[in-house]
Amino acid sequence: MKVLVLGANGRIARLVIERLLKDKNNSLLLYLKNTDRLSSYADDPRVQLVDGDVLDTDKLTKTIEANELDAVYSSVGGIDLAEQTESIIHSMDANGLKRLVFISASGAHHEIPGKFGQWNEEAIADYLPGFRKSAESLEGSDLNYTIIRPAWLTDKDEIDYELTGRNEAFKGTEVSRKSVADLVVKALSDPDEYSYKV
Predict the structure, then answer these.
(1) How many angstroms separate the CA atoms of 139 and 172, rounded?
(2) Using an 8 Å Cβ cutoff, are 33 and 6 in contact?
(3) Which of 35, 78, 89, 124 could pair covalently with 51 via S-S, beta carbons 3.0-4.6 A apart?
(4) Cα three-residue angle 90-150-63, rounded to 5 degrees
(5) Strand order in the sheet with 2-6
(6) How many domains does the chain have?
(7) How many helices (H) and strands (E) does the chain have?
(8) Separation of alpha carbons 106 and 154, rounded Å
């Protein structure tokens, strides 16, 4: 498959890139600000680097149009995540590209109970509105989405996680980036299993 990776220099994104490139049938379009940060991939024939901002909807739309893509993986974030998400939805819709795997955050649906939920709300209060608006926009779109809501991230060298659905109380407090990357790769590789999942 050919995957567009948005926010390709992110720590989870880098793990996903490594995993996807282990399969010789995969090719990647890495979209990020300042492609020099991923110059190690410049000579890989299965990798294209695009210097761009997701908020530049025209450029993102043209990038998707110029490539035959199977899926998009978004690892973007920030205070303006809702605006970035609208740009992604518009660019994909304009090109008839449907499959999106999207990194969100725990608490995006008010799904964390108890004191940890309260602490989480306070800890990422500036970012939660963007996560919540993004989830609302994605769920209201016609994209075939998988929205991943990881707990607090660690750099533990392990793959160990459990999934909770959209209407289930959130379980756990932390998860390794390797675990999140594992789920991203599974969701990209088996869209039927993970379609329209939050």
Answers:
(1) 24
(2) no
(3) 35
(4) 25
(5) 47-51, 27-32, 2-6, 71-74, 99-103, 144-148
(6) 1
(7) 7, 8
(8) 14
Q: Which residue is associated with the tokens 């090719």?
A: 27
H or E segment to which residue 103 belongs: strand 99-103
Q: Domain containing 149 — which CATH number?
A: 3.40.50.720
CB atoms inside a 10 Å sphere around CB 170? 20
Q: From CA 131, how far away is CA 107, in angstroms rounded?
A: 9
> Tokens 């993004």 appear where?
134
Contact 87/54 with Cβ under 8 angstroms? yes
> What is the spatial distance between Cα 141 and Cα 25, in angstroms, rounded to a whole number?
30
Q: Report d(CA 113, CA 118) in Å as an integer.
A: 8
* Residue 13 DSSP SS3: helix
φ and ψ at 143, to 5 degrees?
Answer: -75, 155
Q: Would you say the pTM of this structure is higher than 0.90?
A: yes
Enclosing domain of residue 173: 2-194
Q: Are 13 and 73 in contact (CB under 8 A)?
A: yes
CA distances from 26 to 16, 19, 96, 126 (A): 12, 10, 21, 36
Tokens in use for 87?
A: 């740009």
